[in-house]
Design a protein that fits this description.
Blueprint lengths: L1 H24 L10 E4 L2 E4 L3 E2 L5 E2 L10 E3 L2 E3 L4 E4 L2 E5 L13 E5 L2 E4 L5 H9 L21 H10 L7 H9 L57 E3 L9 E5 L16 E5 L7 E2 L3 E2 L3
Parallel strand pairs: 11-14
Antiparallel strand pairs: 1-2, 3-4, 5-6, 7-10, 8-9, 10-15, 11-12, 12-13
């Protein structure tokens, strides 16, 4: 009996030692791509640093594959990508959606969609042209613009020759005709694929805003659209332009759990809502 107890104690000690060694060797949660480094809750380009307001400062020497280094930081180019048309099917096929998502089916023609969320640089260009109303910004060109109402987002998209996408358009871009759970596939809601849980874990702490648009290239959809899950939640256009509410989709940096990143996850908010975790991207008709 004593021998068995001693053997068990030795085994427990060995397991504890292995666990301690593994924990001591483990680094921070992997969330920043090659070319960028973690600073606090942010991913900044190599050669940059984080200031006291959680902004990436300095000229980067390298950025994520989807971004390019400039004197103003890592920035994205606003190149729309084609989303093939097809039949969108949303419903309780995903067991987690049962009892939450009403079955929905829609056939959509092909359209173009911004690869990246609209950034402060793009919105500033619209303000400079007197086509958009000024909104408070964090002063980092590559960050998604936030704190815009649906009407302000619509004006910016119109300035670019597009429109705020419908709920079905963003759902088709994220889920595809196969009904993916996430934009990249059915599994793998991890910090390197989506900027979420940056306020109070699991991917960071004490964030005061989103990360750079396009800073999670591992989370791209098959068509190469980035940040359809996480970073900022995105406005959609309601079927009735006069509707007082509209859907916001995609989850954001403030959401701590993966359910908010699901392609069927949605929040309905007043169209006049301004929030630091809500932004937008634009859709365009194919010519």
């Amino acid at each position: 009996m004593r021998t068995a107890i001693a053997t068990a104690l030795v085994a427990l000690c060995l397991i504890g030692a292995v666990t301690w060694i593994a924990a001591s060797r483990a680094g921070p949660v992997a969330r920043c791509p090659d070319g960028m480094l973690p600073f606090g809750p942010r991913c900044c380009g190599e050669g940059q640093h984080l200031d006291t307001e959680n902004r990436c400062q300095g000229t980067p020497t390298r950025c994520a594959a989807a971004l390019r280094p400039t004197p103003e930081g890592c920035v994205s180019d606003s190149d729309p990508v084609t989303i093939p048309g097809g039949t969108l099917r949303l419903g309780p096929g995903d067991w987690e959606a049962q009892g939450i998502v009403e079955p929905h089916e829609a056939s959509l023609p092909p359209f173009a969609l911004d690869r990246f969320e609209v950034t402060e640089a793009r919105y500033t260009a619209c303000v400079t042209a007197a086509a958009c109303a000024p909104v408070p910004m964090r002063g980092e060109q590559g960050l998604p613009v936030t704190g815009v109402t649906l009407a302000e987002a619509s004006r910016c998209c119109a300035f670019a020759g597009g429109m705020v996408p419908s709920r079905d358009q963003l759902a088709l871009a994220a889920a595809g005709t196969a009904g993916r759970r996430y934009p990249w596939g059915d599994t793998g809601a991890v910090c390197r694929r989506a900027a979420f849980g940056l306020l109070d874990g699991p991917c960071g702490e004490d964030a005061s805003g989103p990360d750079l648009a396009g800073s999670r290239p591992a989370g791209a959809s098959p068509q190469g659209v980035l940040d359809l899950a996480g970073n900022v939640a995105e406005w959609t256009s309601p079927p009735d332009p006069a509707a007082p509410t509209s859907d916001v989709v995609g989850g954001s940096w403030m959401d701590a759990g993966a359910p908010a990143l699901r392609t069927w996850s949605v929040r309905r908010l007043p169209v006049t809502t301004r929030a630091r975790d809500i932004g937008f991207r634009c859709a365009y008709p194919l010519r």
